[in-house]
Amino acid sequence: MPELHSSFSPPLYLQSPAVQTITPSLFRRVDSLPGESELLELPDGDFLELHWHRHGRPILALLTHGLEGSMESSYLLGLAHALSRADFDVLRWNMRGCGTERNRLTTWYHSGQSEDLLQVVSRALSVHSGDVVLVGISVGGNITLKYLGESATSLSPRIRAAVAVSVPIDLKGSAQQLAKPKNALYMQYLLRPLRARMREKAARFPGHFDISRLSSIRTFHEFDARFTAPYHGFRSVDEYWEHSSSRQFLTSITVPTLLISAQDDPFLSPGCFPREIARATDRILLETPSHGGHVGFIERLALERTWLDKRIVEFLRTIPSKIVALNSNVDGTTSEDTSEN
């Protein structure tokens, strides 16, 4: 399918990729969403934290956060509110060690850990009687796409659609992009919590981790080669990136899937824009606004709702539920105000 035309057109003062990337990250504040918390036990003895916001609606939106984010990240909470207003039930979850509880094992999450998403989807299907749509942001988008491609032959028919935003579908290319001098600020911002994670791990598991040169790490290549790859069973950083990148799984995806990535995203390399794949299949819908930065897509400095929230709701409303059609407007309002704000 040809690349989709995007309606995102921010005013001139918001067109900088740095402004788009940094402003919502630093200044967007979103109230948490009330609901029920759950600890999902995993087969390997670890656990995941889940948060349900349910009112018996026909479609459940399952949201996955990005690198060193959480279910409380402003971009995920803002989207959860928008989907709730649009008559979706919502399930958010924390990747291993990203929530209020430290995970139990020496391992943690990584950019291709679709096995955990499989467990969350299985739980969602067992609890929610209707259809399910998936939304993944950044690394969460990579995991979502990888899961959909890997599970294509066994995917439940109740999984109806997906959206992936600002996704590093080529992990090696994205790592190389972020390692460029012009992106040093972003690189250090992302590495800071990863270094803190390894210090916490080393304190809890004495003798298991060598963090003697941790502070000297300056790139994802160094961090993943030193920690992520060997502690998660990969022989090298290249094997980890190759195995975990979702680009190779896109052609196997069987449900309508919207990829939204800004052309000026400082985190993404050219390989993260799968134009040829999108042209070859009607399942992958690619939308690449000229502006938007990384998980930005803000139209004004009032950050309560973003263009991204509205666009995701708009797309998911085009996927009919097998139970009952949604009765809501594109901007996320309903005939009855269901917002908890």
Describe the protein in words.
By secondary structure, the chain is α/β, with parallel strands linked by helices. The protein has 2 domains: 1-170 and 247-341, Rossmann fold (3-Layer(aba) Sandwich), CATH 3.40.50.1820; 171-244, no CATH class. The protein has helices at 17-27, 74-85, 114-127, 139-150, 171-178, 184-204, 220-231, 237-244, 275-280, 307-316, and strands at residues 36-41, 47-53, 59-64, 89-94, 131-137, 159-165, 257-260, 284-287. It has an 8-stranded mixed sheet with strand order 1-2-4-3-5-6-7-8, sandwiched between helices. Strand 3, helix 2 and strand 4 (89-94) form a beta-alpha-beta unit. Helix 2 packs across helix 10 (307-316), helix 3 packs across helix 4 (139-150) and helix 7 packs across helix 8. The longest helix has 21 residues, at 184-204. The termini are far apart. Residues 323-330 and 332-341 have low confidence and may be disordered.
Ordered list of secondary-structure elements with their pairings:
Elements: H1 17-27, E1 36-41, E2 47-53, E3 59-64, H2 74-85, E4 89-94, H3 114-127, E5 131-137, H4 139-150, E6 159-165, H5 171-178, H6 184-204, H7 220-231, H8 237-244, E7 257-260, H9 275-280, E8 284-287, H10 307-316
Parallel strand pairs: 3-4, 3-5, 5-6, 6-7, 7-8
Antiparallel strand pairs: 1-2, 2-4
Helix pairs in contact: 2-10, 3-4, 7-8
